[in-house]
Amino acid sequence: MIRVIPPALTTSRLVLALSAASAAFVVGALVLLALSWGAPLPDSWGFRGYHIFHAIGFTAVGAIVALRRPANAIGWLLFSAGVVAALGGFGLEYGIYAIVGRATALPGGFLGAWLGSWTWVLYVAGILPFVLLLFPDGRLLSRRWRLVAWAAVISVLVTTALMAFKPGPLQEAAYTENPFTPLPSSMVDTLAAIAIGSILPVMGGASCSLVIRFRRSTGIEREQIKWLAFSAVPLVAAGFVSAVLPDKLGQVLFVFLLLSVPVAVGVAVLRYRLYDINVLINRTLVYGTLSATLIMTYVATVVLFGAILRTFTSGSELAVAVSTLATLALVQPLRRRIQKAVDRRFYRSRYDAARTLDAFNVRLRDQVDLDAVRGGLLDAVHDTVQPSQASLWLRR
Prior knowledge:
The chain is mostly helical. It is built from 14 helices and no strands. Helix 5 runs parallel beside helix 7 (185-216) and helix 7 (185-216) runs antiparallel to helix 8. It is globular and about 90 Å long. Residues 1-6 have low confidence and may be disordered.
């Protein structure tokens, strides 16, 4: 007798098995991290153990989305990224413990360090273009975008090969040399040129796909794309800063902002509190602009009053005090002005609705005729809520 296993049961078992493997790698990496915490290591990108954060975030969200939406490729992308991150994090921590953290080296340390030095490419450089291409339904916008998808595959494979086989110190484990260097130097240079030259075209093409999808979308799909954009824009900015400037702050910021991608994708695909994105975007625009304006105002007033008062006082305490008071006094007026500017530019319907209600309130104060009030109220409802039909009954 042939036993047929339902697809849902097969999916659950697969997710459970890979989640258990990812959890085992994460626990092992944490134990090794604790055992070799004081090991002397050269400076490297980001901070030690950041792969573990990514493994937990991507695996958890990916598992939930894969179970709830098994036909959507987005969940499996996030899930596989988490498993790969867990494997790479375990390899790096085992390499440190086996090579640097002990007086006598353990077998397999070089293999673990080598494995962790290139797996990050698969879930950092590999997942982002495919999320942009496939989000939110797990399918390409059209067959024409297969070219961009294949270009992304080639770019990821070339970059992975470059990181895995280039000679010299390992990318994520600079305390040891690469034990696997089968490629000639000319081929390594070619791979480097292809990897660097393909980043912008691939990411640009994937971003264009998402922009086109957003312009064509309506309703739920548009709100889903807003969630992804809300996490992707600061991530791209942090990635640019961490790539251009050798600054730890930008690198750490990129590490944590990358975790916002699976969270935003999970919220969008599962449609949990989907429409809260409009509030988040509004508050981010308002308070981000307000914070930047207040900081610039504070610095400018400190410099200005410091220069003016320098001839009368010996220190800058008075200038700081005056600048602080001036900045505090500007908080509420600036917030109201910025809120109106944001609503007028990005939320025109809300801005027009508020103006309509304000105008109706002004007319209502001077109006005593019930028929006129009824007509004005219905006009205000039609202009703000825009219902298909509205009626009003008044008791006389």
